[in-house]
Amino acid sequence: MKGIFQKFTNVVSVYITLASITGISLFLTQYFSTYTPLNWSLAFTFVAAILLLNHYTILLPPSGNSLSMDSAIYLAVLFVFGIHMALTILLLTSIIYALYKKSVVWWKHLFNFSIYSIMIIGTYEAFFLFGGTLGTLSFFNVTSYMLSLSVYFLLNVLFIGFFFVLTATENLLQIVKGMLKETISSYLITLILSLNLVLLMKQQIILGVLLFLTVAVLLSISFKQYFELYQEVSQKADIDHLTELYNHGYFKSLLEEEIKTAKLANQPLSIGLIDLDDFKKYNDQHGHLQGDKLLKHFGAELKKSASDAFTAARYGGEEFALLMPGKTELEAYQFINHFRKDINDQYFEGVEVLPHGCLSFSAGIIQYNQDMYDSSEVLEKADQAMYYAKTKGKNNVCIFDADNVPAKTFYNNKEMELLEQQLKIFLYKDVYTYKHSRRVYEYAIEFSNKLNLNNNDQKILVMGALIHDIGKLEIPRDVINKKGKLTKDEWEMVQKHVIWGREIVSTNRELADLLPLVELHHERYDGKGYPYGLSGQEIPRLVRMLTIIDSFDAMTTERPYQKTKSISEAIDELQKCAETQFDPELVHEFIEVIHSSPLHKHSIEQPNKISI
Questions:
Q1: Which of 121, 305, 440, 562 is 20 to 30 A (C-alpha) from 589?
Q2: What is the Cα–Cα distance from 61 to 53, expressed in whole angstroms?
Q3: Cis peptide leading into 531, omega within 30 of 0?
Q4: DSSP of 23-58, one letter per residue?
């Protein structure tokens, strides 16, 4: 058992052990209590049939799951010959399969045998419970067959699903939904075929089995050809026809998956964006056909260098991308910079017209971290680093550094004027939101200075604070200015302002970094916020900062649907809601900002007085 405990958690090991003991115990109890003389030649016929079916599985696109018809044999034998014959066949096939598949660890064979035992015995008991009779199948008693077959399916989903619950982060409901979506059609096919096999065996056992095997093998061969064709077509859809690298769409979808994997495994993930230097000049000088040859050459060299360790893609035009799971930004830099030098040293026809006199590229690298909102933010930062490499004279590789990205990424007059124009629309519609946004903006400057944020993060927080409620422009004036309590429908409308805000801001690519602050500033640290119910570190740090600022100002300012609190009361509320609504560490830092602010110092020290 030592090997098991090294590979799995104690809980998983205990589950496997208990399931195995249960299955073996049920097998021994049922096997010896229902002993009947066997036709061994017939038994070995069924064993051979099952082994053959395990070899000729049916591949199902798009995921490549395989469907084996062995369950149809077990169930048909169970319904025609009884439990003793079915368990005997299970025992023999399991022993032969374990000897044949020695590369599979022993406990997996044992666990699989135990689960099959439980499923077969459970189906047998359910069959009689629902009024079934062995050896008879007609229209009038088909219900008992279908209900017992459902038990077989549900036991499989339950046992395998619980195993995945213990070894994954999803809950049981998510896993069961996924299994049902993936396997229910496969199981329906298997279970219906088992009834067909029952009918065939009632007429002529050996001939029935041979006919069934023939159909199953032919289906396996046909589906294999269909699956290979599907893979070929699917691969063509994911491949750039010129460079034979993966295309932009496939790279983006794979990046999403790798980000999820990096989160779960807490492993590094780096992305590199590569742009060929002065490619337009090469194209203008030598023509597009020669330019295509250059792109193809570069793609081949990138693919060869990346090998199987990384994923290389043509991102668009003369831009390429590298996905490097398991690599830190420094390791990614070393790899890409070494590749850059190799490319510089390789002569390609006509490159002497380029400024560097050789084929060169500029590249930007970013390492994903938990504070990043999504793949778009990752790619945007990699693009910023690549742009910075260009500004340094090209033929460079740069790692993203928020303090050193080019000046275009800091908030400047042009960007501020754009946000101010959108914000001023609130002046005629909702003066409360306008003033609130201005105050949150000022708090954000103080808070970012307190935490010594780098230039880029300060830009995002301050500009996001100014525009975070822009989605309220979509809310009718009579709702947003309502004096009394909002109805349920009105409150649901107000909650949608974060989605509407994202839609407004996303129309301007230059403001892409602000999307998390606009969309997520009503998420809660305990996961009870909206719109997605994110919790803890799933919420980007800058959003967690904005949530505190936004709530503090909301509590201390007159709002149509909230009571006003004093500064002291608001601070008490922040402390009370630390770890539930707010990040406790950031709450502590923000309270220090309020205490040190000349604007609020007097209000904190002097409680509100009621004049008589």
A1: 562
A2: 19
A3: yes
A4: HHHHHHHHHHHT-----HHHHHHHHHHHHHHHHSPE
Tokens of 386: 């690549």
Burial grade of 61 (CB within 10 A; 0-12, 13-18, 19 or more): middle
pLDDT in tens, 119-134: 999 999 998 888 877 7
Contact between residue 301 and residue 361 where contact means Cβ atoms under 8 Å apart: no
SS3 state at 351: helix
How far apart CA 422 and CA 469 sit, in angstroms, is 11
What confidence score (pLDDT) does residue 350 get? 92
- Residues 399, 273: Cα–Cα separation, whole Å: 11
Question: What's the pLDDT tens digit per position in 102-117?
Answer: 888 888 889 989 999 9
In contact, 292 and 301? CB cutoff 8 Å: no
Distance between CA 162 and CA 273 in Å, rounded?
41
* Strand segments (E) across 63-110: 65-67
**What is the predicted pLDDT for the residue at 8?**
44
Give the three-state DSSP class for 535.
coil
CA distances to 471, 495, 509 from 499, in Å: 7, 8, 17
Check the CA dihedral 167-173-176-177 and report its sign: negative
* 0.90 exceeded by pTM: no
Angle at 339 between CA 336 and CA 341, to 5 degrees: 115
Whether the Cβ atoms of residue 460 and residue 517 lie closer than 8 Å to each other:
yes
Question: How far is CA 160 from its chain centroid?
Answer: 21
Phi, psi of 325 (to 5 degrees): -65, 145
